[in-house]
């Protein structure tokens, strides 16, 4: 069994499909910080530089999802679940003008899931090329 470090709600998947139609391929980056700085940010692919310390969490609907290394260390025991809520977040995230914002929820991995993750090995760091 391959355990996902990131997943999304059905509504998020719908919005990613809409945003892809408007903007082309996308990328999501979950950074650390306060306020909107801790929200997942959605960018056109190639408009956010992934650093060698960014951690690749996986893909949602073909959209790569990364997290800053420091933030990953805090959240490594959780699965990030990207959701959508009404309201406009600030910043440069592509969904902001649409009257919604992405929000990270989490599922804390249980002991068996943590063992599965250990068996899968550490996630990749730096840009992952398709």
Q: What's the CATH class label?
A: Mainly Beta
CATH architecture: Sandwich
Strand content: 25-35%
Topology pattern, helix = H, strand = E: EHEEEEHEEH
Shape designation: globular
Biggest sheet, open or closed, and with what strands and sense? Answer: 4 strands, mixed
- Strand line-up in the sheet with most strands: 3-2-5-4
CATH fold node name: Hypothetical Protein Aq_1857, Chain: A
Query: Averaging pLDDT over every residue, what do you get?
Result: 92
Q: So, the CATH homologous superfamily?
A: HesB-like domain
- Structural class, by secondary structure, is alpha/beta
The radius of gyration computed from the alpha-carbon positions, rounded to a whole number of angstroms, is 14 Å
Q: What percent of residues adopt helix (DSSP H or I)?
A: 10-25%
Helical element count?
3
- What are the segments in which pLDDT stays under 50 over at least 5 consecutive residues? none
Distance between the termini: 22 Å
Strand runs, count: 7
Number of domains: 1
């Amino acid at each position: 069994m391959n355990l996902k470090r990131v997943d999304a709600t059905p509504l998020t998947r719908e919005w990613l499909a809409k945003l892809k139609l408007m903007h082309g391929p996308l990328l999501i980056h979950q950074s650390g910080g306060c306020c909107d700085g801790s929200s997942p940010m959605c960018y056109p692919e190639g408009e956010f530089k992934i650093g060698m310390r960014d951690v690749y969490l996986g893909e949602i609907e073909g959209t790569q999802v990364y997290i800053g290394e420091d933030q990953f260390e805090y959240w490594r025991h959780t699965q990030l679940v990207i959701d959508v809520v009404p309201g406009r977040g600030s910043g440069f995230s592509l969904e902001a003008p649409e009257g919604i914002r992405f929000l990270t929820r989490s599922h804390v991995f249980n002991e068996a899931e943590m063992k599965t993750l250990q068996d899968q090995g550490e996630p990749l760091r730096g840009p992952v090329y398709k």
